[in-house]
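User: Modeling request: complex.
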Amino acid sequence: MMKLYDSSLSPFAARVRMALAFKNIGDWQSVTPPGGLKSPQYLAINPAGRIPVLELESGYLLPESEVILEYIEDLYPEPSLRPQDMELRARARVLCRIADFHVAEHMRPLFAQMSTANKDSQIIKTSFANIDDGLGFLNAQLCPGPWAVGTQMSTADCALVPILYFVKMLAGVFGVNNVFDNHDNVIKYWNEAKVQPLSVKTLDEIAKGLTDYMNSQS
Ligand SMILES: N[C@@H](CCC(=O)N[C@@H](CS)C(=O)NCC(=O)O)C(=O)O
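Assistant: Request completed. Predicted assembly structure:
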């Protein structure tokens, strides 16, 4: 059985769980990284010390959520998260890259700021400015919904739904009001996509993970 090194606090791990749920794949197991992400045991699993990693039946340890989705798609082609249309397929890939490189990447300093007592207001300001730029790029690329490239869910939604949830969460934590406000297509996408049953399931898992984490800290 495949193993997913997983966390309900990770938008990247959520991307993989959302794809597995879409395909109704049950033969996988969620595993907590042994010893924490930077422990020698886990660094032997993923030298980058990051989740997710999918351990394949062969024992091969596959990192990088987007590549994991491609593997899952090859392993279980139906139902497909790759649009039939070649242009829409390209658009879904572009949206995944925007989500990763132009939005999620700028959330990293904010996660670090969450867990430090000495907050740096300049880092927080710059990160939200970068996220706003990324949301602008996303805004220009999104198609009319309810999903990111139209009426069918794709890999882009598995990436975007969890990441946008975390953008909202971080904005709440740092008191940034209406983080999507300059981006009409992002607002529309978020409102339509977040209520789809698979999004609800994925976002509920994240919300529960966050609640459990907060409770463990208090
Ligand atoms: N590009 C990677 C990013 C994975 C990633 O950054 N995961 C976060 C959890 S949300 C992590 O493990 N962070 C720990 C760290 O960067 O030290 C992917 O798509 O899988």
